[in-house]
Amino acid sequence: MRKILFLFALCCLSCICSMAEEQKLTIVYLDGSTKAEALANVARIEIVNTSYKIISKADYKTVLFEGDVFELHRISFVKDNIVDPVAVSDIKRQISVTAYPNPTSDVLHIDGKPDNALVTLFSINGSMVLSTKETEINMGGMQPGVYMLQCGTDIIKIIKK
Predict the structure, then answer these.
(1) What is this structure's pTM?
(2) So what's the pLDDT on residue 144?
(3) Domain finish residue from 71, 91, 111
(4) Could you tell me the CA-to-CA distances from 55 to 6, 21, 70, 90, 121 in Å, in that order?
(5) Can you list the positions of beta strands (E) in 24-153?
């Protein structure tokens, strides 16, 4: 299903690119900062889990922009100062698993986890710290820092104080 949606988005992007050379892809972040690129230079937009990448048409490999979709406020296609926004809520997928308190210094509680689903905690460098089917993780003995919690396709950034 993701591949079909991606191919549909790529097809739409190709159609938009052929409309005008003046058109720009503009990204507005939650902090108010922006980035823009001529749409003619953009090959594709990749969205995988919670990350996005804007790939250059020059070699179809160079990353023009990248980041977390949860940092985005709006993606717009601008032509002659007329904005055609794409709602970020259309891009963000619904996260069903939640973890609290976050940041945490002790026990992390996990809600919305399907029965018998595996929860895996990774360090920021990608090494697996633990894997469990429980709904609570004792992080009291772990080093302070950023961790990634994965349950199915949901990934949540966890901060250990």
Answers:
(1) 0.44
(2) 95
(3) 91
(4) 13, 17, 19, 20, 30
(5) 24-29, 34-38, 42-48, 51-56, 63-68, 72-79, 82-87, 98-100, 107-111, 119-123, 128-132, 136-138, 145-151
**Confidence class for position 9, pLDDT limits 50, 70, 90:** very low
Q: Is the dihedral of CA 125, 127, 133, 137 positive or negative?
A: negative
Please check whether residues 63 and 10 belong to one and the same domain.
Answer: yes
Q: SS3 of 90, please? A: helix
C-alpha dihedral (121, 124, 101, 97), degrees to nearest 10:
-50
d(CA 79, CA 15): 14
Residues 13 and 82 in one domain: yes
Whether the Cβ atoms of residue 112 and residue 96 lie closer than 8 Å to each other: yes
Q: What per-residue confidence (pLDDT) applies to 82?
A: 59
Count of C-beta atoms within a 10 Å radius of residue 48? 10
More confident residue, 100 or 15: 100
Strand order in the sheet with 63-68: 42-48, 51-56, 63-68
**Token pair for 69:** 């979709």
